[in-house]
Amino acid sequence: MVDVTPPVTATLEDATRDFEAHRKLLFSMAYNMLGSVADVEDVLQETWLAWSATERAAVDNPRAYLVRIAVNTALARLKRARRDREAYRGLWLPDPVADDSDHTIRSETASYAMMVVLEALTPLERAVFVLQEAFGYSHPEIADILGRTHESVRQLAHRAKVHIRDRRGYYRTDPATQRVATERFLDAALGGDLNALLAVLAPDVAMWTDGGGRKGTARRVVTGRDRILRLISSGFRTLAELSARIVDLNGAPAAIVRRDGAEFAALILDLDPDGTVRTIYTVVNPDKLHGLTPTTYAQS
């Protein structure tokens, strides 16, 4: 009797080919849900292990199967991450992702400001919102992925949309306007020009700083133009030692700030419809900057 069982190497090759064909999609989904590149890489590893152990002859649609594994793995990890982030030293902000990296994100919902707002949703609300708004899944499809009823998914989607509308809305800045505002802010801050800073900041501007416990970084959100002007002006001498380049992070112009030849901070601005800065996001936690490689700087 002839043994027609496929060689193990062929099976693994097929599994690898299918997984790699969908890796960027899975990364994008998990990143939209988690906001942490390290957590996303763990999700992809767990997804691969589950997929490589699956009898693929019984899988009609590898993409759908992989998405179900990755989304539910990310959902479980998000629930644990929420508890960990409550103990985080200071403000927690998502990892910025460079658009020229090996990863692909859906910028419509992975804009940095939207990623921050998504942190306020429950894990299930976030999963439903991401699947529907970023990836175009219908309520029945999402219900199948998450193992929920159609009605519960509809309610989750409604709650998520109401929360986002109340917190921020769906306004998204034109990239050219975003770049100009970022350049004006950098020129004013690094050049020590208070009048120029006053012109670019909205009256109710807020500053978020994720330092990962680094000494000297604000542990709470700083609000109000006067307070932020005083904070920035107090550091003008230090700011003069920095350099910055405009790059694309999370699908929009932002800045990488460098000191002594190394990445010091990622700076992302969120704008009001009139073009003034309503939120300043500054990531100085070095663990969140290592993925922003020097190749990124060629964009400006």
TrEMBL record:
Occurrences of domain RNA polymerase sigma-70 region (ranges): 19-83
Family as reported in the entry's similarity comment: Belongs to the sigma-70 factor family. ECF subfamily.
Oligomeric form and interacting partners: Interacts transiently with the RNA polymerase catalytic core formed by RpoA, RpoB, RpoC and RpoZ (2 alpha, 1 beta, 1 beta' and 1 omega subunit) to form the RNA polymerase holoenzyme that can initiate transcription.
Single annotated GO MF: DNA binding
Pfam families to which the protein is assigned, alphabetical: Sigma70_r2, Sigma70_r4_2
Segments forming domain RNA polymerase sigma factor 70 region 4 type: 115-163
NCBIfam families for this protein: PRK09636.1, sigma70-ECF
Biological processes, Gene Ontology terms: DNA-templated transcription initiation
UniProt keyword annotation of Transcription present: yes
Keywords assigned by UniProt, alphabetized: DNA-binding, Sigma factor, Transcription, Transcription regulation
Keyword Transcription: yes
Protein name listed in UniProt: RNA polymerase sigma-70 factor (ECF subfamily)
Organism from which the protein derives: Nocardia mexicana
